[in-house]
Design brief:
heterodimer; A: alpha+beta; 5-stranded antiparallel sheet; 3-stranded antiparallel sheet; 14% helix; 32% strand; B: alpha/beta; Peroxisomal Thiolase, Chain A, domain 1; 9-stranded mixed sheet; two-stranded antiparallel ribbon; 14 helices; 19% strand
């Protein structure tokens, strides 16, 4: 143990550390959070296979996921628009290790997708988007940056399996 | 010296549950109203900085600070979070404005206890992990009941005296549109109610409610540009006592006493009782806490029971306390409760308290406490 050595003192083994602990407890923390007006309608949309957003008529920003206010103009927004369900990869990563530090059988490709909303154009700073898995890309596509700007489309779960969750979109696939 | 005014306040909620709005949407609604109240200001242009009072375990989100800016208009502006009661945020905002670095600061606090499925467990998690939590106390109210008993013994206060307070405050709550738990009860009903943790029965313990509250504070120079009918923050103070019960004075609340002393000194007040046309808004989430606070902050002496009987703290008394009800009627929206008291005091001084209005209210002493097992208190003195 120990990648470096400190001068002086007495080193403790893992067992010794564990013996010192006198009390252990874990939080019993459960919450059931309201999605709210914007997200509720968004999730209803997902059940029906559409990705909905709201538009700020002041700055033209489209919010996906939607908000009932524009954080930039600080005004209420209530006009809803629909994404085509397609977009392009803004950025992507390949993960090789799971959250509990186990090697994954197959690298997980996660991307931020800039979504298309017919009739609107966006710059690369503020845009309607979604973070999701890309299911038909390899880590090579990420490493070579081929995946960047690739056209992708939402792959939906069968309607009867949708629950009104972000996972109603199984993943995005490169068109 | 820079003076500080509250130029606007707004709120959303004050119901046992709010399933129609996310916490963000609730805060947005409160902020929008506060900014309109402040003279239809645009936070993106007119507000220099924001302070948010919240606590991760109540939120169910870690590093919940990061969720604070957007619904108050604070995106890409200075925003920081105080893990404390809303009144502690007011103290921060006053200091920020008095420093000269900011002219207009917005303060936000919210609580959605209806969304915490294991609320008692979250409260237990705030207990000392080595000495108290392993006791696995049956009632989370036991710690406050211990303090209640020590306080009552020290000042020879009977259960009837607590009852007189509860009956008064719950009746006051009927005058407020924010008090969804208000009801008229008589002393007999109170005395017969079921004990939760002796000496506290169910009527001594405030329920919960969901609410979001936003306040806008400004320097005198800026504030005078918005209105000539201003509510001034004349004094603020806050203090925390030691957490461990056995090392703390349980008869009076020394954190409240120190907070009050500081606030009174800043406001140039020798005796708080001498303030003309005074209203007091204090934390009554446990009935005894209200009485303990009144003694601790110099508004009552050891003969407080006699004051209660003679109606000193009634709406028509010399020192009206929670004249539109307090936590027992409104419920406790967690860290937003201090701002709920500030809101009621602000409305009194603006003459906008509706049927809860105390005629000619001119000064207000606002008290905040962090609740369950804590020993952190804040005092704000307002004047018009």
């Amino acid at each position: 143990m120990g990648m470096f050595r400190l001068r002086g003192g007495t080193s403790l083994s893992d067992r010794e550390f564990r013996e010192i602990v006198k009390e252990s407890s874990e939080p019993r923390a459960r919450y059931s959070m309201t999605a709210g007006q914007a997200y509720s309608r968004f999730f209803e949309g997902l059940k029906n296979g559409v990705i909905l957003g709201t538009v700020c008529d002041s700055c033209g920003m489209v919010f996906i996921p939607p908000k009932i206010y524009c954080p930039y103009c600080f005004r209420s927004v209530s006009r809803w628009v629909e994404s085509s369900g397609e977009g392009k990869v803004f950025t992507a990563v390949a993960s090789y290790i799971s959250a509990d530090v186990k090697p994954l059988d197959k690298p997980e490709i996660v991307a931020v997708i800039k979504l298309d909303v017919p009739g609107y154009r966006f710059d690369n700073y503020r845009f309607p988007g979604i973070m999701h898995r890309i299911c038909n890309a390899s880590d090579e596509d990420v490493k070579t940056q081929r995946i960047f700007d690739a056209r992708v489309r939402a792959r939906w779960l069968p309607k009867e399996k949708r629950t009104g969750s972000i996972n109603d979109i199984e993943c995005f696939e490169v068109v | 010296m820079v003076e500080v005014a509250v130029i606007g306040m707004g709120y959303s909620g004050f119901s046992p549950s709010t399933p129609h709005l996310s916490f963000r949407e609730m805060v947005y609604e409160a902020a929008k109203r506060a900014y309109i109240d402040a003279g239809d200001i645009d936070p993106r242009r007119d507000i220099d900085a924001f302070v948010s009072c919240q606590e991760d375990f109540w939120e169910g989100v870690s590093i919940s600070d990061e969720f604070a800016p957007e619904q108050i208009g604070g995106v890409l502006k200075p925003v920081y979070t105080v893990a404390g009661d809303g009144l502690q945020c007011i103290a921060s905002a006053v200091a920020m404005i008095k420093s000269g670095a900011f002219d207009v600061v917005a303060v936000e606090a919210h609580g959605k206890p209806s969304e915490i499925s294991t609320l008692s467990d979250i409260v237990r998690f705030s207990f000392d992990p080595i000495y108290v939590r392993p006791l696995d106390l049956a009632s989370i109210h036991a710690l406050q009941a211990i303090e209640a008993r020590a306080f009552m013994d020290s000042f020879n206060i009977s259960k009837e005296a607590l009852g007189l307070y509860v009956v008064m405050s719950r009746r006051n709550g009927l005058r407020s549109s924010r008090a969804s738990h208000a009801s008229e009860i008589d002393l007999d009903t109170y005395m017969k109610s079921d004990m939760v943790s002796d000496p506290l029965s169910e009527h001594d313990i405030a329920p919960f409610s969901d609410a979001a509250i936003v306040a806008v504070l400004a320097s005198d120079t800026v504030a005078r540009g918005y209105s000539d009918d201003l509510v001034w923050v004349r004094g603020v103070g806050f203090a925390s006592d030691i957490y461990t019960y056995v090392f703390r004075d349980l008869s009076i609340d020394r954190s409240a006493r120190i907070a009050a002393d500081k606030a009174y000194k800043m406001a140039g007040i020798d005796s708080p009782k001498s303030l003309r046309n005074l209203v007091v808004e204090l934390d009554e989430r446990y009935s005894y806490k209200a009485l303990q606070t009144l003694i601790s902050i110099g508004l009552a002496g050891p003969d407080i029971a006699r004051d209660l009987e003679s109606g000193v703290f009634n709406r028509s008394g010399a020192i009206p306390v929670n004249p539109g009800g307090g936590a027992l009627s409104e419920g406790v929206p967690l860290e937003a409760h201090g701002l709920a008291r500030l809101l009621s005091g602000y409305e009194q001084l603006k003459g906008r308290a509706g049927s809860a209005q105390i005629d000619d209210a001119e000064n207000a002493i606002i008290h905040g406490w962090r609740g369950f097992a804590t020993a952190t208190s804040s005092i704000v003195v307002l004047s018009r």
